[in-house]
Every structure is written in C-alpha cells, then in structure tokens.
# Entry
Amino acid sequence: MIYNDSDTIVAPATATGGALCLIRISGGQAIAIVDDIFCGKQPLSLVGSHRAVYGNIVENGRVIDDVVVTIFKAPHTYTGEDIVEISAHGSRYIINRIISAITSRGARMAEAGEFTRRAFLAGRLDLSQAEAVADIIASESQASHAIASTQMRGGYSDELKAMRHELVNLCSLLELELDFSEEDVEFADRSQLNSLVKALSNKVDSLRQSFALGNVLKEGVTVAIVGAPNVGKSTLLNRLAGEERAMVSDIAGTTRDTIEVVTNIDGVIFRFIDTAGLHATDDRLEQMGIERTREAISKARIILVMREAFTTDSDATLLDFSPNEQQRVYHVINKIDLCNNYQAETTDDTLLYISAKSGIGIEELKERLTEGLDLAAAYRGDTIVSSQRHYQALTQASESLQATLSAIKRDTSADLLSEEIRQVMHHIGTITGEISSDDILHNIFSKFCIGK
Ligand code: GDP
Ligand code: MG
# Structure
C-alpha cells in the first residue's frame, strides 16, 4: 500500500449499530470539504478550534442528517493536521451518504491506523505510544489496560529516551578521542565506561524480564485443566467461568475436544482450557482429543492436574508430562464434598482440595492462579514491556551491550567501541520509532482498526 500522507482522509471512528456514529476527517482540506456540505449558523471556516457546532449535512438540497461538528485546527490536534469530527445518527445509510459526499469532494478513505500513523509522523506520539493506542482499544482487563495506559502516556518512552541520552554521551566522548587519536588521550575513562554500560545493560535486562508478565497480562494467562476422565474437569471449568460452558456427564470421555473459556479473575484475563481426559484408549476420536490435550499442556502457563479425593496415587491414568521452568503445576484434589472427615491440612502449597460441584476451595484456587503475577507493578505504572516487537529489540540491544562490555575488556579502540554503542542506540531507536522504515510502520499500523 502506498500512502500519500498529504491526502485528506476520512473514516468512521465508531462501529456501526450504535445510536450515534463519529466520522473523522483529517488533512489540509478537512474543514473546506465539510463546510461544503454543512449548513449551520455560520460557515465552519469561521468556527474556532476545539469548538462544536450544530447543523445539517445537506447534499443536492437534501438534508442527510442533523449533526454536531467539532473543529480541531492544526497543529494542536491528534494528527497534527486540521481535524473535523462529525457526530451523526448511527444509521449505516446516513454514514455511507456522508462519507461518499466527503470522498466525492476530494478526501479518500483512511487506511487502517492512518490517523495514528499521521500522529506519529507529525511527532505527536512516538512509535511505542502509537502502538499503545491499539493496545488500549484492545484491552479487555484492568491489568492489560494499566500497562497500555502507562505506555500511551509515555512512561516507557521516557525511560528509553533517558537511556538513549546516556548512549549519545558515551558515543560523543569516544568520538572525541578519535579526533585526538595522535595524542593517545582517553576522554572516556574505561572503568567508568564499563560501569555505565553495565548499568544500561541491567536496565535493558529488567525491561526484558518484564515481558514475561506483560505478555501474559496482555494475552491472558493460559491454564490447562488436565486429568483422568470423570474427575470433574468440565465441572471446574463451568464453576470458574460462572456458566455452563463445558458438557458435564458421568460417562467417561465426554469431553473429546478441548474447550477454551475466557474469564476475568481479579482484573486479569485467564484462558482456561478444558481437555479430554488423559488415559489409554483405542477410540480414534478420543486419541485425537488426547493429542490436543498434550498440545494444550505445552502451551499453558499454569497446569491444574486434577484427581478425585478417593483415588490413590497409583491410579493407572496418572499423567506423564514434565513441565518447563515457566510453567506452574498445581495438584487439585476434587470432590472433597464426598469425603466424610476430610481435612485440608497440607504444607504443600501446590496441593489444593476443592469441590468443583459445591464450590469449596474455589476462592483459594483463584488466589493461587493470580499469585506470582506482579499486578501491583502494573497498577503502580511501572514500565512493563508487553509487545513482542519491543522485546525483540531489547534482546538485540542487550546482545550489543554484552558485545560492548567484552570490547571494553579487550581494550578495543574507541572507534570500534562507539560502533558497538551505536548498535545499541539503533535497537532502542526502533522501539520509539527514531529508527523506522515504511515496512515497520506498515506492519504496525495495518493491524489497527479503520478510523484510528
Ligand atoms: P470430566 O470428565 O473430568 O470433565 O468430569 P465432569 O466435569 O464431566 O464430571 C464427571 C462427574 O463428576 C459428573 O457427574 C459431575 O457431576 C461429577 N462431579 C464433578 N465435580 C464434582 C464434585 O466436586 N463433587 C461431586 N460429588 N461430584 C462432582
Ligand atoms: Mg469433561
């Protein structure tokens, strides 16, 4: 797609089906074009910036709708250009008529994310902030909203900017040495340089580490519920989701396929996957279900291994899988309502006694699920990296910082050192968009919705 960034663009900013619809127009011709179809007390060209006026949209002498038009004049607008917003009634017919009246007067339909792309190009936001706009719109939980909100407000950008500033200083000191290369001077004291690069490397690594949290808070925590047939997996899923989602029956092997249920616990999105029971079977359909179960286990962050209260550990259907280090496994003993003198006394905090049917122990289970997630960090406004793209850039920056450290150790020349540091700056610059290409921008903004 080839953009012409000087075109005037138009798009509906709201989904159809609501009572009202917002149509947004941005660009040099925005005010003149809408003025041509607007009939109010005064022409729009005379309306002050950030003011709303009431009137009619009229084309060929016919009133299409009565609307409120808001005028935003460059440069203090979202895109940095003149923007006109039309609030019309939310009929698909009205929206189409107004938009085609506008495009026939020289505007074109906006591409996905084009308003925000212009905001970035005009320097109103940096690239990581622009990306956070999409995350804000997609946020489904308090935690993912908190992360996106910090990023959109520029908390992350400030941290990156500070880092970049230090790197620029380092580079200029090193490059100063080059100018005096005959005289063998060292402006950048090597041990100081070493500790500065180390400090930066620690900062980058702590940002990288925050991705583990950021990623799950943004995408949701995947929890696989596994166990032998009939232990109560589907019942637990329904209890957690607060609705009847999975089929429950006392015929073993009822859940042949995996079912995913998304639910919000304490501001975090969880994706529970109800699986087919794991056990030996000749039934082909069931075998396929079991294959999917193994897949679900490999993708999950938390695995709930379920058993019934009155079975023994020697149960032949016990699971054989080994979790990786990022996975947490809890052993959930279900149906304790059937035990007469049950006592939930245990020092093993990976062991939980519940009744999926009556609800005993479910609150404790929910608490366990959110433990280990540093939600306070998200709500406090700490910088938490939640974008795969940023994580990759930080990983590359970290590698370059390591290379710089070993170059310092080897007593490498100033020009090679400054070259390494420039690499670090490059990778950090791709996050904020100081370094960007049409491909990168297209990749990012094409995932936005139209009208944003
Ligand atoms: P799944 O095969 O593991 O998905 O098991 P289901 O959820 O389909 O449950 C199998 C049977 O156990 C059903 O008859 C459930 O009503 C019953 N069940 C599940 N949880 C409990 C529980 O906590 N207590 C009792 N008494 N029965 C339960
Ligand atoms: Mg089931």
Residues 132-215+387-433 form a domain with the Four Helix Bundle (Hemerythrin (Met), subunit A) fold (CATH 1.20.120.430).
